[in-house]
Amino acid sequence: MLFNSIEFVFFFIIVTGAFFLLPHKFRWVLLLVASCFFYMFFKPIYILILGFTIVIDYYAGILLENEPDKAKKKRYLVMSLVANIGVLAVFKYFNFFNDNITSVAEYMGYKNPIPYLSILLPIGLSFHTFQAMSYTIEVYRGNQRAERHFGIYSLYVMFYPQLVAGPIERPQNVLHQFHEVQTFKYDNVVSGLRLMLWGMFKKVVIADRLAVVTDMVFSDPHHHSSVAIAIGAVMFAFQIFCDFSGYSDIALGSARVMGFKLMLNFDRPFNSKSVTEFWRRWHISLSTWFNDYLFNPIVVGLRNWGTMAIVFGLLITFFISGFWHGAGWKFVIYGVLNGLALVYEYLTRKKRKKLFKKLPVPVANAIGKFCTVGFIAFSWIFFRAENVSDALYMVGRLPGVFTEIPQMISSRHFSTGIQLAPMRMLLCVALILFMEGVHMLQGKYDVVQLVERRPVAVRWGIYYVLVLAILYLGMFNNKEFIYFQF
């Protein structure tokens, strides 16, 4: 069992109220207890997993800072990384590798004696594991002082707003904030609540409404037309964005109300004109994590390879990024596809730049955005499909769009092929267009300032419209956030 979005809001109100009532010296205790309760609401025993890695990394950080010998420092770092990756490997990847060993053994006529582990994946394991690893790596590099306060370090790993789905914070950004006195600031409360409201709107109104369409298509692709599969793929792209960025907005907003500043995790990714730009705007905390701790070290280590160092670094980074998302070949394919796209863009960047210079800017931008969204939606078929077989079937059906649409036009009978009332489909499209319209405004203006400069009646009118939209258009079906499973 896990908090849904509405329960999270009530939990946040209770914790925040108590936070400002308590003296500063007791606030870390409140936040740590609240974070433990929040995590244990899923499966209480799994708090021991977090406790194990927290103890290991806390002492590893102190040892790393106090040890002058580089060889010993590296051993301490390796010890910490092995502990974190080991926990991740057991709970997230053990059965995946065991299943593949079983398949290979059966093909060769042998039996795999290793039993299957009947364990649940702890929520957000990949997120807090990567956040813990960034701490010891930064201490090892000398960019962060080791945290001596065990409770504050525990809170860094377990801070409930971003515990289960990020953003994946760096110690330089967050640790010092838990030591600082956070005072009640009206501006923080207003901007934080406004961000939470927008996040809730994206989650329960847009994402969960789009989920009705995508669940129909992806749960039974063999009984849907090519047009339906294409619509399902595109709508899933917007669903996962609204679901994940909606959670990030709620996390950033709830932290901001208490005075804490978390890093931006999304920056209008569907406004990207290339896949490379998309990954700079999407899940920024993870993209920068891989860039700093995997891609850059690979490129530096292989700098004698020249261009091939970049190519190799991109492929390895996105292979691991795909595998980070889930223990399954479909996630590996998803990661490799994006890696290949970035390699292509890197190798052809000069030729593409010359080509686009020959086109009017609006046309070049439109082509870039269309191709980017199309490719991302295509790659996410592997991410969302039940298995690789279903994903390949759906991909194989996509060319059928070019025959089905002309047939619909000639017969004057257009159908999405999805068993959903036309008005509900139109509402889904309208919601996507509304959100992207807001994003277009954000690209030209500071939307927050635009709202703040309006008269009180206009501002509150906007807030009431969003609240009413959540109440009347929201899908309150206890549908969990997609990234909680990672």
From TrEMBL:
Keyword Magnesium tagged: no
Membrane topology recorded in Swiss-Prot or TrEMBL: Multi-pass membrane protein
Main location: membrane
InterPro entries documented for this protein: Ac/AlaTfrase_AlgI/DltB (IPR024194), AlgI (IPR028362), MB_O-acyltransferase (IPR051085), MBOAT_fam (IPR004299)
Chain segments annotated as transmembrane: 5-22, 28-55, 76-94, 114-135, 305-325, 331-347, 359-383, 416-435, 456-476
Keyword line: Acyltransferase, Cell membrane, Membrane, Transferase, Transmembrane, Transmembrane helix
UniProt xrefs under Pfam families: MBOAT (PF03062)
Keyword Oxidoreductase: no
Subcellular location: Cell membrane
Family, per entry: Belongs to the membrane-bound acyltransferase family.
Name the record gives this protein: MBOAT family protein
Organism field: Nemorincola caseinilytica
